[in-house]
Amino acid sequence: xxxxxxxxxxxxxxxxxxxxxxxxxxxxxxxxxxxxxxxxxxxxxxxxxxxxxxxxxxxxxxxxxxxxxxxxxxxxxxxxxxxxxxxxxxxxxxxxxxxxxxxxxxxxxxxxxxxxxxxxxxxxxxxxxxxxxxxxxxxxxxxxxxxxxxxxxxxxxxxxxxxxxxxxxxxxxxxxxxxxxxxxxxxxxxxxxxxxxxxxxxxxxxxxxxxxxxxxxxxxxxxxxxxxxxxxxxxxxxxxxxxxxxxxxxxxxxxxxxxxxxxxxxxxxxxxxxxxxxxxxxxxxxxxxxxxxxxxxxxxxxxxxxxxxxxxxxxxxxxxxxxxxxxxxxxxxxxxxxxxxxxxxxxxxxxxxxxxxxxxxxxxxxxxxxxxxxxxxxxxxxxxxxxxxxxxxxxxxxxxxxxxxxxxxxxxxxxxxxxxxxxxxxxxxxxxxxxxxxxxxxxxxxxxxxxxxxxxxxxxxxxxxxxxxxxxxxxxxxxxxxxxxxxxxxxxxxxxxxxxxxxxx
Length: 505
Description:
about 500 residues
């Protein structure tokens, strides 16, 4: 059996924001939906709230009045779990506690038929552990919707250790029939999105803790250079610092305190201070009525250099050479194979961030990775205390001549976008190697679940097979804490072709 007939009754247990959202999705798809909550009166309140949202859909011409009335007729509050006996799917969206979910699902096993599919909407608990309390754990599957469930398309379909393939297939097809985009995932801490997204937050916080850049500057570079919808600081303020830190801490603990997932001390202090983000009026940013808007550091205008000397093709930044010529700046080419860099008129050099620091070399300014150098509106530069002011000024003037705002940050290896993207790519390759999900599903999950401009494997193909491995290797040598050590999976990916050619010879 694949999927569920849309005439089949479906139940949602738990009537919070997520429970109501899931119920609305099933309802609009055509199911008869029963809502149950252990607190008396809550289910009836949820039915009324969903009805009001259906009214708004009619006002926005997303639903006809006839469709709304039919949906309302299919939505019923349940006074007890016994009223869910004929349901073919029950989704629990109750308190995020293992014992609570286990007790509920054990009780449901005694109510529903043997063919009823049981689903948990957990975002941080192990589906395997939840199912471990059941007589028939094979029929339990994770259905991780993203909030708000009626709007966001992604659903992670999570198979626990004991989940039957048929159960996962039914859940997958059901999500697709509901108009969602399902991705298949093994039961791993954080599933796909919350596992692979950790560096997006962690690297931004590390830059802040190292005093390399302030939150507004990091966020602006991630948006205007990296192409991300939101920066890490503003996004966690929106999510809630307590919620985001809780997920990070859960993933870290579940991976036995793996250093790659270590939580941020700065974020911990924020939570301890009660600065939880928008919901408390203050997080990384102040949301008070009289608060001044935090602005990114933007360099003062500088004169553009008359020419640059190009060595190599600049790798992922090769498009810059054309932009520089279009800006009327002469590009001289040299044949020496000493790497990919630009030499400025004053003798200083400009290089794409590669995991090294400016302090190691004489008069070097690094520039950050961009999603698209033509459309990027901001570029970050990194310089050490030994970099000459002339070199910084010439580098700044060069990018300003290309129409970019320039943010000069501290001497941080890997900059902002580059270190973030490299770590995301690494975790994605590691996840595939460990059977968490396919490359295609990971790319889909990261684009739809957290609005990344590219999936990790799309980034990887664009940047080259060995880019992330070489980049993280450089970073690891300068910060050998283990956090930046590239995975074995990334090594295999980077040098697979090289090994094949070597064995063939």
